[in-house]
Design a protein that fits this description.
3 helical TM bundles of succinate and fumarate reductases; Succ_DH_anchor; SuccDH_FuR_B_TM-su; 4 helices; mainly alpha; SQR/QFR_C/D; about 150 residues; membrane; transport
Length: about 150
Amino acid sequence: MTLIADPKAPRPPKAGPGRRTTRGNVELYGWVFMRVSGVLLLVLIFGHLFVNLVTGEGVKAIDFAFVAGKWASPFWQVWDLLMLWLAMIHGTNGVRTIINDYAEKDTTRLVLKSLVGLAFLVVVVLGTLVIFTFNPCPHGVAADLLPSFCTAG
């Protein structure tokens, strides 16, 4: 008779020099963060959708001027920034968990997590820059290149 190992049982850690046998509380904090950030993301996303689609004229009214007007308010800048950061951290942590579960080799795990971390960093930095440096009416630009709501000068 052959015994098959329980597929849900945790794998024993690989022993070796310099290897820790436990990850400490990092995984617990990650688990708690996923639940809390998921609830916050629901509030942020449905608030975003409500304001953009229900209170206005619907999706046809969302254009450059709508975004420019919305981002003129620090409240909406912070709202969108929180949504960006929480979504990226939440998604990156989820992908990190999947990599830990399915990547067998340490080198593969390191490469994949490094690529995910780099992608996270690029998106968060660029997104944050766009939110806080967005200027629909830059000075010194020809009037024919500016949106219709900008005054030349």
